[in-house]
Write a structure and sequence with these properties.
mainly alpha; Lysozyme; 8 helices
């Protein structure tokens, strides 16, 4: 009888006993923890920052492009350019900047070719051999409007009308642009060398 009573008391005590201390503390900590709010940058700020960075880069290349063309951007033109750029999307602005950089590379290549041709004599877009440049200096002093006393020989290379037409020229050689005369003179030089100019070609 005493054993049964003791067993019933133990069971009742176990049911009514409080939770162990670690469990109670953990529950209290969870309930007391404050929710963490993540810091999120507004999308508008990201867009504005990206456009500002890309605009600075585009204006930098635009100024370089202007210098290569001999037409520098004024402060007012730069401000107007920035106002137009902020209306673009970042992707559209990147595309325009990429195209501008390609234009700059193309301009540089053209300028390099122009410098190389100028070193060899002749008009800006026609390379002239040194021997042909010397012939032009002898024949006319390099003057594309020169005409011989009798009027038979005309222009920088003193073409006769027959010779001028044989290399594709039309009209009066002395009235043609210097570039055109250089081009026809180079053709003539390639076909027969300096022999076409019996005196100055020696």
């Amino acid at each position: 009888m005493r054993l049964r009573t003791l067993g019933a008391v133990c069971v009742t005590s176990a049911v009514a006993a409080p939770l162990p201390a670690p469990v109670a503390v953990a529950s209290a900590q969870v309930s007391a923890a404050r929710p963490v709010t993540p810091v999120i940058t507004p999308p508008g700020d990201l867009h504005t920052g990206a456009i500002s960075l890309l605009s600075d880069r585009h204006v930098h290349y635009a100024r370089r492009h202007g210098r290569l063309q001999g037409d520098r951007l004024t402060p007012a033109e730069r401000r107007a350019l920035r106002q137009r750029l902020v209306l673009l999307t970042p992707i559209g602005l990147r595309v325009q900047t990429r195209e501008l950089r390609e234009d700059i590379r193309s301009l540089r290549r053209k300028l390099e070719r122009k410098v190389q041709r100028a070193r060899h004599g002749g008009a800006p877009d026609v390379a002239i051999p040194a021997a042909l440049a010397a012939i032009a200096g002898c024949e006319s002093g390099g003057d594309p409007r020169a005409i011989s006393p009798g009027g038979e020989y005309r222009g920088k290379y003193q073409f006769s009308l027959q010779t001028w037409r044989s290399v594709g020229g039309t009209g009066d050689p002395a009235a043609a642009s210097e570039t055109e005369q250089d081009r026809r003179g180079a053709i003539l030089y390639r076909t027969g060398g300096p022999g076409h100019w019996p005196v100055c070609g020696r």
